[in-house]
Amino acid sequence: MNSERIIKKYPNRRLYDTEVSRYITLADVRDLVMSGQPFRVLDSANDSDITRAILLQIMLEEESGGAPLFSANMLAQVIRFYGGTLQGTFARYLESSLDLFAKQQQEMTKALTDNPFETVTRLTQKNVEIWADLQDELMRAAGFPVAPRKKKE
């Protein structure tokens, strides 16, 4: 069941899960996201991929209820990158950062059964190195010279 699941969105705004042959809600799509199930949402009229729009709709609902993840200042900063020369670099930076955060969270959960202090120290050192590399990439993309750093072994 690792194959990509196809959801069709019809003009009546309903979502149809082709794998289970039934209509689903945005909450069901959110559950797919939370379970890590790969999927795509296609517009039934022309088969265009509208997955991003559906995910943004889910995020909007999440942000509207409870404690929001994004502050107004953070959203304004993200908006400022649209159309700028660093838009692609910023998108890769954010995606890499979120991937790193998720991996670190999984690793931390597994490793806390061992020596938690040693684990936290190791992860912190690794994070500093990765963030420094990401920062260097961002600075290079912006046209700033970046001095080579010595890697710890």
TrEMBL record:
GO terms for biological process: regulation of DNA-templated transcription. The gene is phaR. It comes from the Bacteria. Residues 70-108 form the PHB accumulation regulatory domain. Residues 6-65 form the PHA accumulation regulator DNA-binding N-terminal domain. Pfam families: PHB_acc, PHB_acc_N. This is Polyhydroxyalkanoate synthesis repressor PhaR.
